Amino acid sequence: MVTSFFYDILVLYLTMEKQRGTYISIVRFVVFCALALMVLLSSCTSSKQLIYVETDLYELIIPEKHKEFLVLFPSFGGTIESVKKGSKLVEKALDVNIAVVIVKLNQDLFLNEEEQAEIGQVLLNVLIDNSGVEKDIYIGGFSSGGNLAMQTAKYLTNNQKVNLSIKGLLIVDSPLDLVQFYHNSKKLILKNNAKEAQCFIDYLDDRLGEMNSNLENYKLFSPCVNSIGYVENSKFKNTELVFYTEPASVFKKKNYQQDFKDTNSFQLQQLSEKLNALHYKVSYIETENKGYRDEDEGVHVPHSWSIIDVDAIMRWIKNKEMPLSNVLLLD
Q1: Residue 1 has what pLDDT?
Q2: Which of 39, 42, 59, 296 has its CA 20 to 30 A from that of 107?
Q3: CATH for 247
Q4: Which stretches of the chain drop beneath a pLDDT of 70?
Q5: pLDDT attached to residue 137
Q6: How many domains is the chain built from?
Q7: What is the pLDDT of residues 204-220, one digit of tens each?
Q8: Closest alpha carbon to 260 in 270, 251, 273, 247
Q9: How far is it, in rounded angstroms, from Cα 122 to Cα 299?
Q10: Based on the domain organization, do 274 and 309 belong to the same domain?
């Protein structure tokens, strides 16, 4: 490549000298080559070097000089591509040398103890193998992926073998209260929004049992149960929690016959207030008209990755400037 480059430069230089009708100057030729070499080196170094690793459980993308790790969980039925296309989060993270891990789990509302140990150990190995243990770690998820993100963060935080620095949790419009989510799904069935809601009811009945008869199971695997003030699974001593949600009250009333108290936004607001009252580090951020998905051709979809403020999240990870609540949290 370099030999061909200098041959092309020599031909170009001789052509220019011939057109100018001057004798070849050695000094001028050396200067010309030096400038051309600088252009070549600049073009070679401007493209960021990324390492890609893909397994059955995750995709790992590592910039050459990564300084932080961002672990992301997709929504129920989501994919690696849906995480990448949902916002500019992955793209901008890589631009500023944040390593990204996208987990492929996408058929769960929660993880049982065995599943937590499995994915927790996989991620722990990824961090150990890629110098991530001593780096700042942020974990996030959209929709049900936020539930899995919180459970995984709790598992890794409680790991006694390795001292991990999990600095932040990014939760995007997630149904963290499985008891409330169960009630909301029942309401949707009664209002003829039955197909997806019935699927979730069947899932929870199968894995945890009917909710009213098995509340202890729901407490064990749900990040919170707001109706009884249970938030033990959401308490993180040294981790900042940032919740994004778009209430879109008119949209949800029109399309799903849902009041605010039937939404993920209400769940996140309630949890934020409880954690704030206990002096944990939490931000609750409501957005307006930011929810869209590419595949929906510009149609407003408030339940989406796009509601997050990517620049604010980059400042959070790189500069440790935690995004602030834009709604007053009651104590």
Answers
A1: 45
A2: 296
A3: 3.40.50.1820
A4: 1-48, 160, 193, 294-298, 331
A5: 95
A6: 2
A7: 999 999 999 999 999 99
A8: 247
A9: 37
A10: yes
Number of other residues whose CB lies within 10 A of the CB of residue 97: 15
- For residues 104-120, one letter each, b for 16 or more C-beta atoms within 10 angstroms of the residue's C-beta and e for the rest, the string is bbbebbbbeeebbeebb
Say whether both 125 and 227 belong to one domain: yes
**Is 85 a member of any domain?**
yes
SS3 per-residue string spanning 71-98: EEECCCCCCHHHHHHHCCHHHHHHHCCE
66 part of a folded domain = yes
| Cα–Cα distances in angstroms (integers) from residue 123 to residues 80, 116, 127, 128, 173, in the given order | 16, 11, 6, 9, 23
Residue 152 shares a structural domain with residue 33: no
Residues 6+ apart with CB under 8 A from 14: 24
In a domain? residue 330: no
pTM: 0.84
Could you tell me how many residues make up the chain? 331
Q: In whole angstroms, what is the distance from residue 221 CA to residue 133 CA?
A: 26
> What residues make up the domain containing 164?
50-319
- Which stretches within the chain are classed as H helix? 2-20, 26-46, 80-86, 89-95, 113-129, 144-157, 178-190, 194-208, 215-221, 249-256, 264-277, 310-319
Q: Give the C-alpha separation, 147 to 264, whole Å.
A: 12
* Residues 143 and 7 occupy one common structural domain: no
Same domain, 176 and 278: yes
**331 in any annotated domain:** no
d(CA 221, CA 232) in angstroms, rounded, equals 11
Is residue 94 located within the same domain as residue 141? yes
